[in-house]
Design brief:
13 strands, four-stranded mixed beta sheet, single chain, alpha+beta, seven-stranded antiparallel beta sheet
Length: 904
């Protein structure tokens, strides 16, 4: 019996792992057993993996196999969190949403166990360094097989077995037309490309460890062949990731001189592959698009605009390499003053709606009557459209449904085209953190134990896998790469082999908690925490509609051209001189048009960066990471930040805050080592700050205040040279501000918002700490006192936060209701018509509604500069003025509804 167990461990398991490395990539995804309510099938590899798992469990029970010491714990945590998420979803989430099935969710959960159990199996088979040789041979054979089959698909007409929809997944052999994107033996071209990225990095690294020239040439041919079929998949994401991965691998191999030749060769090879380079070029295309002048919204890509149109004209279908246009547009500002406008009819490509399904039908055209504006735009293709309009919002909504543990496996369909959003949507923050914990532990193990590896082959294997994992991690931003079965199986097998190699040389246990704790305290980790806190606090503002002066700024951006950018820096607008802020509005409008989500997301990013700078500065002043983090938490809850984030009119303050904090941080770096480099970066940051908002010019006063505080109440200018540079730049700015014609320089409200929510936060913590020290409290008690004080402050601010959110959310709804009441009921108004508005609220509680910006909002509806918008106090005042005008309408906002008032 013991001999049988030993044979299973020493012979059978390594053979089965070797077989899986070859079989999984080469055997097509043919169905074996169907599963109801999904087109995911149980396949032959599932049966083989199940048998292999039984063999490993038997070996483990009898002590012939072992579990790796370090990386196993995070995997168990991930399984536990996945189980918890599944149970919660089945009980609380699934009954509230449609088209989800408990059995399918359980199947997805067990699939995650199946993926990761391969890690344990593979790791247990590496008992001495030479054991990896057979696995390298298997990897080469598998790579050779999928490469030859890929070429066979392109040139010999070999069939493909796809799983991209329900019919394809039934195992029907499909013969790809000429020029189609090859998939080899995989279920889709994305999966195949991701596999190639991983294996090319691994074999490329092994190339440097192989001694025999004939083997070197064989591996080089495999890598070049793999790159060639990678290009034939036409996967832009994977090719870009391949370049990053191969560069990382060469850096880790200390072969930096090869980076430029390898990259140049790869790009030249890309240019030689017919159709693939065109696909890269068509990721974003500058196309004329049709804009409805009544709504200001882009509705389709312009096909033709002839003087006269009669009937519908068919167009030929696109060739296989042509990627259909999606329904997403990135505004391309006009380059001339006169914009062509369709008089009454335009011929456009379908779809004319935002339906994703229609977006694939690019061979039809439609005739539409009306008034249209023709404007150039970046039009992104259908693959980006499906992500932005379908998969990503679906995953994000699933996350918001239950942020802690997600909505459960299978709750967001089979794919989301972003593995990280899928993790958040299905398993929430806990599942997301648990999954990242696995890879974090892997990198800790590699970092701590790599030096112990004596074999050059072992080192090259670890380097190749580490670069490959980083590549797949990048790939996961646009592909569900960790859920693609063929990729996931091979990935966890190879990670297991990698850990097995390391443990051949160093079996010691890493102090995982200590290493993790050190990582969790790192600046990179704090940035991630701040991102989560920012989303948690302010995520609900992402869908707030525009209000008040938002429309004023948006109209300026909408009417701007590229040639106007220089004028931002020469002339003022609306009494202010804020060229960088104007430029930011210009860029964001070009990307997001009138979609509030994008604008508010930019606000959150600005708040995130400013909060991170508060943390870094807090470390310099407080000399304590924990207290700096607490200070940052106060900053995030500060009422002034709340007021900035709820509308987009505060870009100038938020942008100036980021640059001011950067300047202040560089000041501290200069204080530490007197490097002139920090003066240079500090001055650049200071210049950008006051070009964003005039109030940033008072930075020298803040520096003086800082010197006053840290020197115990004495007015001391720390590092006078740095300070004098700031004063000189401020003087030059005043001259520039004067010649720009701007009339406003002092804005005390902006000044308080700019500095009252950032550095003053840190100063408050600094003073509290000094008070605790004066009270002769022990460090532990000092920290406790600080935590209690900060906790009370956050509770107080949180109360204000709820009130502010409620007010601004209602204000945004009122704004949206007023605009769309006009838009939905009046397709157009005659030229030079006058619209009177009565009882339009300026504010709702402390939130802005239409204290200004109503005329600009109506302009976005009709894009008609001849329309006049007049606000009056009563209907009588409106009718007295309207009697003198032929085309006029009077609207009144009463009982939360906008209605037209007719004089009788």
């Amino acid at each position: 019996m013991l001999k049988l167990i030993a044979w299973l461990s020493d012979k059978a398991l390594p053979f089965l792992v070797t077989f899986l490395i070859i079989f999984i990539p080469l055997y097509p995804k043919l169905p074996l057993i169907g599963v109801t309510h999904t087109w995911v099938y149980i396949r032959v590899e599932d049966i083989i993996i199940g048998l292999t798992s039984i063999v490993w469990l038997i070996s483990l029970v009898f002590g012939k196999s072992s579990i790796p010491k370090n990386i196993s714990f995070p995997i168990f945590v991930y399984w536990i969190v996945g189980f918890l998420s599944t149970v919660i979803a089945l009980i609380f989430i699934f009954p509230t949403i449609a088209n989800v099935f408990p059995f399918v969710a359980l199947l997805h959960y067990f699939r995650r166990i199946e993926y990761l159990i391969l890690f344990f199996i593979a790791a247990s088979t590496v008992k001495k360094p030479e054991d990896i040789n057979k696995y390298i041979i298997a990897i080469c054979l598998a790579m050779l097989g999928v490469t030859l089959y890929g070429f066979g698909q392109r040139f010999l007409g070999l069939p493909a077995f796809l799983t991209m929809n329900e019919e394809f997944a039934k195992g029907i052999p499909l013969y790809l037309p000429p020029g189609a994107r090859i998939t080899s033996t995989f279920g889709g071209h994305y999966d195949f490309a991701a596999y190639l990225v991983l294996i090319i990095a691994l074999l490329g690294s092994i190339f440097f460890a192989v001694k025999r020239m004939i083997l070197k040439m064989f591996i080089l041919i495999l890598c070049v062949g793999g790159l060639s079929v990678l290009l034939l998949t036409a996967s832009r994401v994977s090719f870009a990731v391949y370049l990053v991965t191969i560069v990382l691998m060469l850096i880790m191999q200390k072969k930096k001189l090869l980076i430029i030749p390898v990259v140049i060769f790869s790009v030249i090879l890309l240019a030689q592959v017919k159709g693939t380079a065109d696909r890269f070029a068509k990721t974003f295309r500058i196309q004329p698009i049709v804009i409805n002048t009544q709504t200001g919204q882009p509705i389709a890509v312009l096909e033709k605009l002839p003087p006269e149109i009669s009937g519908v004209r068919p167009t030929s279908p696109p060739v296989q390499d042509t990627l259909p246009l999606g329904t997403g547009f990135i505004g391309f500002p006009p380059v001339s003053e006169n914009q062509p406008e369709a008089t009454s009819v335009a011929v456009i490509k379908k779809p004319v709606s935002s339906s994703l399904k229609l977006a694939t039908i690019s061979s039809e055209i439609s005739t539409i009557s009306g008034s249209f504006l023709i404007q150039k735009a970046f039009v992104y293709d259908i693959s980006f459209t499906t992500r932005l309009q379908g998969g990503w919002p679906r995953a994000w909504n699933a996350f918001l449904r239950n942020p802690l543990t997600g909505s459960g496996y299978s709750s967001i369909s089979l794919a989301s085209d972003n593995d990280y959003l899928r993790l958040l949507g299905e398993t929430g923050i806990l599942g997301f953190m648990a999954f990242l914990f696995i890879f974090t532990t892997y990198f800790i193990v590699v970092y701590r134990k790599f030096a112990a590896i004596k074999s050059s082959m072992g080192k090259s294997f670890v380097i190749g896998m580490t670069a490959g994992i980083i590549g797949l991690s990048l790939n996961a931003f646009l592909i569900d790469v960790f859920e693609a079965s063929k990729v996931a199986y091979i990935l966890w097998i190879l990670i297991g082999i990698t850990i097995g190699i390391i443990e051949c040389y160093d079996k010691s246990s890493i102090k995982l908690w200590q290493e993790t704790y050190r990582l969790l305290k790192s600046n990179m980790a704090v940035f991630f925490y701040l991102f989560l806190i920012t989303i948690f606090i302010y995520g609900k503002t992402l869908n707030y509609y525009f209000v008040s002066s938002d429309f004023v700024l948006l109209k300026i951006a909408a009417q701007s051209k590229f040639s106007d950018v220089l004028q931002y820096f020469i002339h003022q607008y609306d009494f202010s001189y804020q060229p960088l802020s104007r430029l930011l509005y210009f860029i964001v409008y070009a990307i997001f048009w009138l979609k509030p989500f994008g604008y508010h997301f930019i606000s959150l990013l600005l708040l995130l960066f400013s909060s991170f700078m508060v943390y870094l500065i807090g470390q310099k002043i407080l000399h304590n990471k924990f207290l700096a983090f607490l200070a940052t938490c106060i900053y995030l809850f500060m009422p002034f930040n709340n007021g900035n984030i709820v509308w987009i009119s505060s870009y100038s303050i938020m942008l100036a805050t980021v640059f001011s904090l950067l300047a202040f941080y560089f000041y501290h770096l200069y204080c530490q080592n007197n490097k002139l480099t920090w003066i240079f970066f500090g001055i650049i940051s200071y210049i950008c700050a006051f070009l964003s908002n005039e109030m940033a010019i008072f930075m020298p006063v803040l520096l003086a205040g800082y010197g006053f505080i840290v020197k115990g109440g004495r007015l001391v200018f720390v590092h006078k040279k740095y300070y004098m540079f700031f004063l000189f730049i401020a003087f030059l700015y005043l001259i520039l501000h004067y010649f720009s014609g701007a009339k406003r320089l002092l804005d005390f409200d902006a000044l308080v918002k700019l500095y009252g929510t950032s550095l003053i936060t840190v100063f408050i913590i600094f003073l509290i700490k000094k008070i605790c020290q004066r009270l002769v409290l022990k460090p532990a008690r000092q920290n406790l006192a600080m935590v209690l004080i900060i906790f009370v402050l956050i509770l107080r601010f949180n109360y204000d936060l709820a009130e502010i959110f409620a007010a601004w959310e209602t204000a945004a709804k009122i704004s949206h209701k007023i605009i769309y009441a006009v838009k939905d009921n009046y397709r157009f108004f005659p030229k030079k018509a006058t619209l009177y508005f009565v009882n339009i609220p300026n504010n709702y509680k402390k939130a802005q509604v239409f204290s200004e910006g109503l005329a600009e909002a109506i302009w976005f509806v009709y894009r008609d500069d001849s329309l006049s918008v007049v606000r009056t106090n009563t209907p009588d005042d409106a009718f007295k003025s309207a009697e003198k005008i032929n085309d006029s309408h009077v609207f009144s906002f009463d009982n939360n509804e906008l209605t037209e008032v007719v004089y009788r």
